[in-house]
Amino acid sequence: MGAAKRLLEEEHRKFGIATGIAIEAKALRLCEIHEIAYDAGGDIEAAYRLGNYQFTNGQLSEIFDSRREMTDFIKRAIQEHAADECGMCAKNAAE
Hints:
mainly alpha
């Protein structure tokens, strides 16, 4: 496996973990049908606090190189899942 592919897989893993933190902190919601994350109207600060708590307790220190990297991934996850509802549910409702 090439270095670029490993780097991409690692980025994807970190993004998934950051998305999970945002869901657990209720900054994002997970569609029960499609398992797609979308904006829950929650506070990004709550996700940062949860992530920092987990990092301090050693749960994330082997995943993220620093707290800053972790919060950057959380911010990106929330921004990239900014829809008000699950995209698949919205598409199905429109049809």
